[in-house]
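Quick start: read one record
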Amino acid sequence: MRRLLAAAALAALAGCMNAQPCPGNLEVCNGACVDLAADPEHCGACGTVCASGKACVSGACTDFTTGSCANRTNGAFVVLESCGQTVKLWTTSATFISQAQVLLSNPASTPNLPVLQLTQGADCDAQWTWHPDAIEARFEPGPPDTQCSLCPGSASLLFAYTPIDPLWCPPGSSVLSVDVR
């Protein structure tokens, strides 16, 4: 009887350790829900990593495409790095742009945590299925009162848990470039 109870307990524990079903069209890779169509760390299949400078578009590693992004003015392209991944965002927030320039020249400056409102759909960075709102970008000295701290590859999960455009504050992020136009 003890062996039967021990076996039942181990089976229950193993069930708790398995990944839960992922929302939407996400798949489980290494215990995390990922979008195989857009995740550069799991492009088309778990563990298929796109080379630096490549984006995962429709499950294939491809060159970045810019389209109308090349003609944008009255704002800036800001490239952030978080968790070893980059995000190129377009912003028209003059305050965000000036603070990004300060952080680029002096990374220890504060405030240094970007807080971005995400919108579904790719924009100028085709590797992601979302993009930050151009107007709502801001920096804060610490995270807001919300669960927003995810690596870029997991940011799409925020849409599964909120009915409105979620806030995202990429952890340990740094500014890699600021291209004012």
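Helices lie at 2-17, 94-105.
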